[in-house]
Design brief:
CATH architecture of the largest domain: Alpha-Beta Barrel
Helix content: 25-40%
CATH class of the largest domain: Alpha Beta
CATH topology of the largest domain: TIM Barrel
Distance between the termini: 62 Å
Radius of gyration: 25 Å
Structural class: alpha+beta
Largest sheet: 12 strands, mixed
CATH superfamily of the largest domain: Metal-dependent hydrolases
Number of helices: 11
Bound molecules: zinc ion
Strand content: 25-35%
Low-confidence stretches: 4-15, 123-128
Mean pLDDT: 89
Length: 402
């Protein structure tokens, strides 16, 4: 008992002595218990790949302007803190359940007979143009102001939101006027967006479905060339079959949060970076980002897994991981020091039968390569159209090591 108390006292002294108090400059009666602190950004680093910078984007987001729970101000600060460079505004065009609350709150300003004074949820069978009375461009206008402040590039967009099981959801990115896209016919809405020069991304293709089988509507819009990109990862969902589809239809691949609550509770609280679409672009201007999407220079990152085009995955790995040192332990055995310059953890092994090693982001490890070991390095947490593993030819590394 005595020892417990002594330990307790000792630890309290240690705590007290490590604490520092900061007196408020204008009111000396205020003590700040910790040093004044501003927001902190997570630096998610990836070296240049094929001469391009790798930008971190979220191409699918929500705020209180549709069915999200946070304000735009919070979203942009959150994007910056989470390490993003690019944020797309993609509120649901036809699903805005907070609208009724706003209208009730503002009842003193609104005439009784105003149209649209109802909880506007899309009625899938009779999506009515009367339901949209709000200015759908306002979310983007807010985001742009905040984006300038936080150095986050904002893509203007909107989510065309129809019955998940038959039609699905489509993000129109790089739109000009969100108020001129709606049409009860979803294909017409997509065409209206394309007329403005938008790129169309098919969202969460497996969500609320029993398989990734394409519906008639999907088949039609894909075959007509109205789709430019597809989410192969959305929130905690990953659709490996969508990689093959993206290759077949020549689409950019993305991984997005579709964030409705805070990113913290889905990702950081569980020890993860948030989902990101990695975009290989010249710079972070809208023109360059768009050019990169059109050239399909994107990869998808979600919960430590990277997915996309096989060649691009290999290029990203080779740009991130180098053999920086080698030593011959004895004939036929070489120690190789692998250095990982990116923030991504890679799970690697020599061939199918090699032991699995974790090469953490920003760290180096030694691996022993023995004669007879496979000269292919398999990266377990990379997925391409060919499946789970992406193989890197180790011979150049071994040569470089000599
Ligand atoms: Zn959606
Ligand atoms: Zn969404």
């Amino acid at each position: 008992m005595k020892r417990t108390i002594l330990t307790l006292v000792a630890s309290m002294v240690a705590l007290a002595s490590s604490a520092q108090y900061y007196q408020n400059k204008t009111n000396p009666d205020i003590l700040h218990i910790t040093e004044p602190r501003t927001q902190q950004r997570v630096n998610f680093e990836i070296p240049q790949v094929n001469g391009y910078n790798v930008y971190k984007a979220d191409l699918h987001t929500h705020t209180i302007f549709s069915d999200g729970q946070m304000t735009m101000d919070y979203r942009i600060r959150e994007a910056w803190m989470d390490g993003l460079d690019i944020y797309a505004v993609t509120e649901h065009m036809e699903y805005r359940p907070h609208e009724e609350t706003f209208i009730k709150w503002m009842k003193g300003y609104i005439r009784e007979d105003v149209k649209g004074a109802k909880n506007h949820r899309i009625n899938y069978s009779e999506a009515d143009s009367d339901g949209i009375q709000v200015d759908l461009n306002l979310p983007y206008e807010q985001a742009v102001k905040l984006g300038k402040q936080f150095n986050v590039t904002i893509i203007p967009g909107i989510e065309v939101t129809r019955t998940p099981a038959t039609i699905g959801h489509f993000n129109a990115l790089f739109i000009k006027d969100a108020n001129k896209i709606y049409d009860a016919d979803p294909e017409k809405a997509i065409r209206n967006a394309r007329k403005q020069g938008a790129l169309i991304m098919h969202n969460h293709p497996g969500w609320s479905r029993t398989s990734l089988e394409m519906t008639d509507f999907e088949q039609r819009v894909y075959d007509k060339g109205l789709i430019d990109g597809v989410e192969i990862m959305n929130g905690v969902e990953f659709y490996p079959k969508a990689i093959e589809r993206a290759k077949r239809y020549n689409l950019f691949m993305s991984s997005n949060t579709d964030v409705h609550r805070t990113s913290y509770e889905v990702y950081q609280m569980n020890g993860h970076y948030r989902n990101m679409t990695l975009i290989l672009a010249k710079d972070r201007s809208l023109e360059s980002i768009r050019e990169a999407l059109e050239a399909k220079r994107t990869l998808a990152f979600s919960f430590g897994t990277v997915a996309g085009d096989e060649k691009l995955l290999q290029d990203l790995f080779n740009a991130s991981v180098k053999v920086v040192y080698s030593a011959v332990e004895k004939p036929g055995r070489i120690y190789l020091q692998f250095e990982n310059k990116s923030s991504i953890d890679f799970l690697i092994r020599f061939g199918e039968s090699g032991d699995l090693a974790r090469l953490e982001g920003g760290k180096s490890i030694f691996l022993r390569h023995k004669d007879g070991n496979d000269t292919n390095l398999i990266v377990e947490n990379m997925w391409s159209e060919k499946g789970r593993t992406v193989t890197i030819d180790l011979k150049p590394y071994l040569e470089a090591a000599k």
